[in-house]
Amino acid sequence: MTDEGKFVWFSDIHFDPLYGRAGAVNDASCSDGSVNDAPWGKLGCDSPVDLVRSSLDYAQSIVSEPDFFLITGDLCRHKNDDVNVVAMLSGVADEMRQSYNNTVFVPSMGNNDVVPDYHLDVLGGDNQLGEIREALSDIFPRTRNDTFARGGYLSVNVPGGAAVVLSLNTVIYSVWHSPNSTGVGDPFGQFAWLEMELATMRREGQWIYVSGHIPPTVGSYRRTQLWHGKYLDRYLALMLEYSDVVAAQLFGHVHSDEFRAASLGGKPLPPLLMTGALTPVYSNNPNFRVVRYNRLDGTILDYDTYFFDVAKANDAAVQPQWKISPSFREAFGVPDMSAGSLSSVADTIASSEKAGATFLSRRKADIFEPPCFRPCRARWNCTLRASSLEEYRGCLLTAGLVGEAAAQPPPAGALHYVLHPGISMFVLFGFLLLACGIRARRRWAYKTPEPVEIDGDENCDVLPTIREIT
Fold this sequence. Notes:
The chain is of the alpha/beta class. The chain contains 15 helices and 14 strands. The strands form 3 sheets. Strands 3-2-1-12-13-14 form a 6-stranded mixed beta sheet, with no helix packed on it. A 6-stranded mixed beta sheet has the order 4-5-6-7-11-8, with helices on both faces. β12 and β13 form a beta hairpin. The longest helix has 22 residues.
């Protein structure tokens, strides 16, 4: 056995068993006749079963015996109140086990894997956890203790090295979690368990990965903090204290290929990696990762992203043509994905237009994003280095983006690149006049989109293609 291992990483599958029928997510465009010509999925829709099967078949064809298979949450579709979540979970688990019969799976629970979205009763106990545990029985790993049924977290020994993956329940730390339980210092006793596991791994000379669904950071759309501050502070303190044990943090939820090179008190935290989504609901091409890592110390060496152009696949009416993106090391010229390497890449993105364009092109798996000039790249540098909103705003101040640091930052876009307040107002006023004029002339051509619920956010009359999942 060599020192280099591989694992397969899927996230945000969002399987929709009603795709193409009444009741599909974003019903107006995902259940009409047009999906008959889109069997592999459609931008703006959650994943049909053919997309799930195609991705698993292709993954198995390129890595038939990975060390393990990581799933960072949200197997179930959005808007899951009126569908059978248990059936969706067990259906996806069955497909996974058929593709990888002898592989160790490491699942995490996402906010769309519970009903309602983000709902877990911390104070009264929640029998959903036992139901989820049973629904995932086809892929559920052997663990020392069945902590999942009582708290939604688990510890998994990984074959091939001195490694353990600690899969966290992050739903309970989310700013969208309900019912409100922020008065509880340690929901489900997860922090006490995490600290005990970390201390044990240190004594035994093992390294670990921490995995979960909702990342402990600031989101890249609205630049909002995704965890409640009290829980984020406690988690980051543990990551710093055990940075000699934690090789990497692996999360999903944002439907975007990103990373964080954050620090605490001037000391680097373990690298935080976030993977893209299989579902194309937020205008990304379906994608998954194959990760190469050092079995001796857990260092993430590199990863390959596999994706296909969902629009072209449907136009051609052929099997999806899965492609591989340049690996992270090839794209950014670093030796690995350690904290130092990620910090270097963040600096390069801030200083280089080419590196910034490369980063943005990879976020949604080869979906075009508009140019990102220096202020935009400075903003991204702050995002990539921040774990909390306070750190993000402090970075903006240092970068000279004073106005944005004083208020909730708007999403990245054309107006985001203009710094001078007078110029900003002039451009904004002109843009609004132009937009209103065009809308008045072309009102007949527009169909008002239905309100879209974005991962627990309030309903907004916006298209899902321009919102991040935070």
